[in-house]
Amino acid sequence: MKAAIFYHPEAYSTQGPRLMGRNAAGESFLRGFLAYSKTQEFWVQIKNREAGELFAQAAREQGRTEPVRGIEKSSLAALSQAGVLYLPGPNIGEHANQRAGFGHHSWSLCGITHTTSSAVAMDSITSLITAPVQPWDALICTSTAVKDNVGRLLQAQIEYLQQRLGISKVTLPQLPVIPLGIHTGDFEHTPAQKVAARAALGAAEDTLVVLYMGRLSFHAKAHPLAMYQALQRAADVTGRQVLLVECGWHANDSIAQAFSSAAKLVSPGVRVVTLDGRNAAARQTAWASADVFCSLSDNIQESFGIVPIEAMAAGIPVVVSDWDGYKDTVRDGVDGFRVPTLMPGAGMGTDFALRHALELDTYDMYCGHASALVAVDIDATADAFVRLFSSRELRQKMGAAGRLRAREVYDWAVIIPQYEALWDRLDDVRATHGKSLTPLISPWPSRMDPFLAFAAYPTRTLQSETVLAQVDGDIPVAQRLHEMRQLGMISFAKVVLPSDAELQEVLRVANGGPCTAAQLVARLPAERQAFVFRALVWLVKLGILRIIP
Fold it and tell me: Fewest C-beta in 10 Å: which of 122, 235, 331, 438?
C-alpha cells in the first residue's frame, strides 16, 4: 500500500489561533497514520521544503525511520508513483482538475468530509458532478448522516444540470463511511488522577460531575438551554449535588456572558465551572473528574462529533442528542442515552439558505438561525440524567460498555487499516478501468492550452512543414544567441526554453541551409522534440531564424 498525504501543516495541528474540529481531527489522524500505517515509505504533497521537513520531523518523533518523499507542484507527476493522494478535506474536484493534465488515470484521490454546511464545503461537494472525478476516487463520509447529506447535495446538483443541460451521464467518486478515530489510551485515568481532578474542581465525593467538552458556542456548536434545564430537573428529582464542567472556549466575552446568564436563569441549583479547553491540562482534569458526559448537539455544522467517543474511551456514560454522527457512535441504552430531536420539515428553511447565499447572514448566523429551530427533548434528557444519577451501577455498566466500543471500533489502530484498505481498492479499480478513458484535447477546459484558446490571434502558426533558415549577421549565430540569453527580458522564460545543447543541435542543422521545422528537431530525443519544436518560434522572435515563404 502506498499513498501520498497532502500535507499543509495547519490542517494537522491544534496549535493555530483558531482551534476547530477539522484541526483536531487532522492532528489525530496524522498521529494515528504515523503510528499504524504499514507503508514502507512516506509520500507527501507539500507546498515547500519546510513543510516536508515538518512532516519528516513528525515521523521521526513517532519512531518512523522510513524515507519521506516530498512532491511539490513542479513535480506533481510523481503522484503516479504513490498511487493515491489523501486530502484532509472534501475538495477532491479541485485536485481532479490538476490531475487532468497528467491523465485522469494517473493516480487516485481520496478526501474526507468535516462540516458540510459551509458554503465552501457545499460548493466542493456539488462541484464533483462536473469535476473530472473518477470511480477510482473517494470522498470519505464520517457518518451515515453526513453521507445522506452529501447524497442530497449531489442529487440536487444532478437534477439542476438535467433540467439546465439535459445531462444523462454522471460519474461519481466512491462515498465510503469511515468514522474518525481517537487514541483511546489518551483517555485512561488512574483512581488517584480522578481523585485529584475532582479535588481541583472542589467536587465532594457524592457530587455528580457532568462534563460538556467542546467549543462553547450556542449558535455554532450546541445550544446549552436543554442541558441546563434537564440538569436542574434531575438535581431536583434526585436531590443530588450537581457540578457542570464546561470545558471549552468562548469566541468572545458576550458569548461567555450569554452562557452564564442562561445557566443562572434556568439552572440556579447547578454549580458551573468553566475550564479552558485549549489547555491540555484543563482537558485532562475535565475528563478525569466526570461521572457523566453530555453533548446535546443541535447544529447543522456538526457532522460526526468526536467528543462522545472520547468520553466513552474514558469510561464515562454519555447523554447525547439523537443527531448526526451520534446516531452511529452511541448505542442508546448501552453506552448511554440518545435523546430525541425535532426540526421543521423540508421546504421550511429556504429563507435561511437564501440569506446565507446572498451574504446577508454570516455562516455563523446561518447555523445559528437553523439551530434556533432544532429542539432537543428536555424531558427525555432529564430522565436520562435521573437514571444515571440514581445508579452508580448503571454508570459503571454503561461506562465500561462505551470504553470497550471505543477501543474495538474507534481507535486509530482499527481505523487506519480501513483507510489503507480503501486506498488499495481505489488502486485496483484504477488499474482495471483507468486506461479505458478517451483523452480530451482540453481535459481542463477553463485552463486551456493558450495556443489553442487564442488560435485566432496570430497570422500563422508553426507547422511541421514550415521552412526556416538561419539569419546571417556580423556576429556568429552561437555568440549572438548566448548574449541574448543573458538579457533579463529573455532569461525570465528559461523554464520553457531548450537547453544549450539542444539549441546547438538546432543551429547545426540550420547551418546547412533552409529546412522544415520538423527537420530541425528530428535528431533530438523523441521525448524532447515537441518541447524544442515550439521554441523554434522563440528563435524567430530573437532574429536567429527566419521564415522562408
Answer: 438
